[in-house]
Amino acid sequence: MAEVTLRREKTTNFKRPGSIVGEFLRALEKGHTYNIRKNSYLIFGILWGIPVPIVTIGMALYYKDIAPSVTHIIGEVIANPIHIFFLLHPMLFGIVFGAMGTVRDEKEKEKQELYRLKDNFLSMVSHELRSPLTAVQGYVTFIMDGKAGPVTGKQKEALGIASEQVEHLDYLIEELVDLSRIETGEFEVKPGCVDIKGVATKVVNSLKQRADEKNITLKNELPDQIPCVWADEKRMSQVLANLLGNAIKFTPENRTVRITGREKYDTVEFSVVDQGIGIPNDKIDKIFERFYQVDSTNRRKFGGCGLGLAITKNIIELHKGRLYVESEIGVGSKFFFELKKCERERGEKCK
Predict the structure, then answer these.
(1) Edge-to-edge strands of the sheet including 217-220?
(2) I need a surface site. Which of 50, 89, 194, 242 has the fewest CB within 10 A?
(3) Are 254 and 313 in contact (CB under 8 A)?
(4) Spatial separation of the C-alpha atoms in residues 266 and 231, rounded to whole Å
(5) Alpha-carbon distances, residue 56 vs 69, 73, 117, 182, 291 (angstroms)
(6) Kind of pairing, strands 192-194 and 267-273?
């Protein structure tokens, strides 16, 4: 009895909602599978199957030394009905590939719907969190300033830590807001002629304390004469802060992180170079996906919600540039991005 029950469970597994075979069988019942206008997989399957009857019938006529003609082909099929099976191959291949296309299209629709729901959720959560967080920050500052009474040194130190964590939460919320705006097309850049060397200096100075905590040397190696770029100054600060912040995060103590740049025809190429842990080759194409973490386990060593690089990539692309990375495990990573030089004929001055 136990053996019979086990066999029955095995057969019903194919029909479970998450089963690949079950998805395929359900696709066979849907009109999209057989819709030659909407399902390109169906056309591909038919074309894939056409050579089968051509080859089999052609070989049969060749070995019988019969010249190929419509009459001889019909005669061969009548004489050997097995050819009917081969003639059905284009249809069979079309159905199989058409069902695969249906499964793929449905998964894509589900994915888009999940993205839409997640974007709506992120937009709502970020909005609802912003107000109470602002209130918390206000009260922390109010108490630290002694306006609610005397504050001891230990209390002030504790309030300082609380303030830092509130700022970190505010940064995470800002990332969620940016992601939501990117998805809805509301994220904008306002380019102008920007002195990128000056922007980099400000960002490096703002991150110096974080680098000093790990005894990391943070270097701004952009040449003094590097051309201005056509970019949004605020968004470039965000890009550099994300890339340099990541470099500091993933670089062990007592090492160096630097930013360099060079002219390339009508663009300027920038690179953020670290001596960190590196990125595995099979993960490099995924690190720019939103919410992606190279180490996604509960025991991962490095924090973050996996939005910084996704947002950075979108910012660079909105500037008509590109962002890419070269990395080697145990040696470090180099993140490159390119921006157009400022066109002097615009009459703009570097900010």
Answers:
(1) 217-220, 256-264, 267-273, 332-340, 323-328
(2) 50
(3) no
(4) 14
(5) 15, 11, 52, 55, 52
(6) unpaired
Structure tokens, 346: 């615009």
**Quick check: helix, strand or coil at residue 187?**
coil
The set of long-range contacts for 24-30, using a CB threshold of 8 Å and a minimum separation of 24, is 24/99, 24/100, 24/103, 27/98, 27/99, 27/100, 27/102, 27/103, 27/106, 28/95, 28/99, 30/102
What domains can you pick out in the chain, each with its CATH number? Answer: 1-187 (no CATH), 192-346 (3.30.565.10)
At residue 327, what is the residue type? S
Tokens of 53: 């009857």
State the pairing for strand pair 267-273/332-340: antiparallel
pLDDT, one tens digit per residue, over 192-249 is 999 999 999 999 998 898 899 899 999 999 998 889 999 999 889 999 999 999 899 8
The verdict on pTM exceeding 0.70 is no
Alpha-carbon distance 83 to 66, whole Å? 16
Which candidate, 187, 137, 128, 127, places its Cα nearest to that of 166? Answer: 137
Contact present, 137 and 166 (Cβ < 8 Å): yes
